Amino acid sequence: MDGRRLSYKQLEGGFTQPNAGVSVKMSEWARSAAVSNVDPKQSGEGVAAGGGGDVRRNDDLLELYCGNANFTIPLAPMFRKAGGS
Questions:
Q1: Are 48 and 77 in contact (CB under 8 A)?
Q2: Given pLDDT bands bounded at 50, 70 and 90, which one contains residue 63?
Q3: Which of 8, 24, 36, 61 has a CA between 20 and 30 Å from the CA of residue 67?
Q4: Taking the domains of the chain in order of start, what are their residue ranges?
């Protein structure tokens, strides 16, 4: 995604998007939505850790009912803090 290889382990009994291609498209859409919703006055300075020219937001991400963190992993570098439950 965005020139980076992201990976995670599928845990038995966990849930996630079972179609890898759809998962990538959904995550790319979520990242583009997070970028397009940045208020220039509120955005941080510089490039987020992890490279790739990410926008660094000055807010936090909480992914609820995240299963295997399909969105938390690719979005985390864009936010001050990220977590899921």
A1: yes
A2: confident
A3: 36
A4: 43-85
